[in-house]
């Protein structure tokens, strides 16, 4: 078995889940378009001769760079006469399957699906080319049932999907406390329940789960329903930084259309700069794009605390991705992977240098 491979029983599950998503709703995604300011720029040249670039993201505030970049037109302006076409996914593994199948070019994604996608393809299908966000993940619980961290034992805690970033984080946290959980079934000292973020609030209200380890805005939705924040994942990391969202691209697309990739990265850097300089306007833009994508916006009581807990950054925080891979190993989801080559930050560093910004590193995990 190659060093980058996954145990056979895990491979079966990881292979089946994306196929179920494909059968149900096209990789668990939906296409979205925008107003005129998000259409191809009239008269502008097409980048790399492309009619369009297919861009993916999740409808989470942790994907705020993509939400704002879409809504405010940063992505489309950078692509000029090439049309930005968007797909919104329900969870990261489905998006990785779309990239691996060739139906998506570039997208915003969590670290664990990126690691799984890279190792399953033995390093052939994707690269991480940029950072996007840190933080924005919390363990929220029913305060009537769970008052302390020790009380989590024996209760039902939801994560968004098997093998996604929050699923790995919860399994690792459980293991570090000395508790036992079977990673595949979720059964053990804590019952890990895999449930789409969209259904988690209803599951909490019905009492079928006792809490959840989830990204924003789902965490703040649960708090609005009476849950309490028991743990902010940020507090588990040195310097209170950890990657929650990166930008990944298919290696084929990167090789064939490097200018298009740099255009998306330029838009991402510009978007993050605008978000950090105009937090209130950016928060409103992200909410407006959520409304456009899903048909409803977030009320202020959910939006405000959720947005406050996320930090937007161009740095992919490569050292924390390596740590998250180790978490997946400890949780029993991966054999120790070889991640050298998962990053190619050269295009991002060209963009950053041109913008007069500091460059970023890959902690030795870049292409050679």
UniProtKB/TrEMBL annotation:
Q: Organism's domain of life?
A: Bacteria
Q: Where in or outside the cell is it found? A: Cell inner membrane; Periplasm
Principal location class: membrane
Protein keywords: Cell inner membrane, Cell membrane, Membrane, Signal, Transport
Q: Which PANTHER family match?
A: ALIPHATIC SULFONATES-BINDING PROTEIN-RELATED, TAURINE-BINDING PERIPLASMIC PROTEIN
Please state which protein family the record places this protein in.
Answer: Belongs to the bacterial solute-binding protein SsuA/TauA family.
**Which protein is depicted?**
Aliphatic sulfonate ABC transporter substrate-binding protein
Q: Which organism is it from?
A: Streptomyces actuosus
Taxonomic lineage of the native organism: Bacteria, Bacillati, Actinomycetota, Actinomycetes, Kitasatosporales
């Amino acid at each position: 078995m190659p060093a980058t491979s996954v145990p056979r029983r895990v491979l079966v599950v990881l292979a089946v889940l994306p196929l179920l998503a494909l059968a149900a709703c096209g990789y668990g995604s939906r296409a979205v378009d925008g107003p005129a300011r998000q259409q191809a720029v009239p008269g502008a040249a097409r980048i790399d001769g492309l009619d369009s670039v297919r861009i993916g993201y999740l409808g989470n505030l942790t994907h705020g760079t993509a939400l704002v970049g879409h809504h405010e037109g940063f992505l489309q302006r950078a692509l000029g006469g090439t049309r930005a076409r968007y797909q919104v996914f329900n969870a990261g593994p489905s998006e990785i399957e779309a990239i691996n199948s060739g139906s998506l070019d570039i997208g915003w994604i969590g670290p664990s699906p990126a690691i799984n996608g890279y190792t399953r393809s033995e390093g052939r299908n994707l690269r991480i080319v940029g950072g996007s966000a840190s933080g924005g993940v919390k363990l929220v619980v029913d305060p009537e049932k769970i008052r302390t961290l020790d009380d989590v034992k024996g209760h039902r805690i939801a994560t968004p999907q098997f093998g996604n970033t929050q699923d790995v984080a919860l399994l690792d946290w459980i293991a570090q406390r000395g508790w036992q959980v079977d990673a595949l079934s979720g059964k053990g000292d804590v019952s890990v329940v895999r449930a789409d973020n969209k259904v988690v609030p209803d599951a909490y209200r019905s009492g079928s789960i006792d809490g959840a380890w989830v990204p924003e805005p789902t965490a703040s939705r649960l708090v609005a329903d009476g849950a309490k924040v028991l743990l902010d994942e940020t507090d588990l990391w040195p310097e209170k930084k950890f990657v929650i969202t990166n930008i990944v691209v298919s290696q084929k697309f990167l090789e064939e259309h490097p200018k298009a990739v740099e255009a998306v990265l330029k838009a991402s850097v510009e978007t993050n700069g605008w978000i950090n300089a105009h937090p209130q306007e950016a928060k409103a833009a992200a909410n407006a794009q959520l409304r456009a994508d899903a048909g409803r916006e977030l009320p202020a009581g959910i939006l405000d605390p959720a947005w406050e807990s996320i930090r937007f950054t161009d740095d992919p925080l490569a050292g924390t991705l390596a740590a998250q891979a180790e978490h997946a190993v400890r949780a029993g989801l991966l054999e120790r992977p070889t991640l050298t080559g998962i990053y190619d930050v050269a295009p991002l560093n060209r963009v950053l240098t041109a913008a007069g910004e500091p460059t970023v590193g890959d902690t030795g995990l870049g292409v050679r």
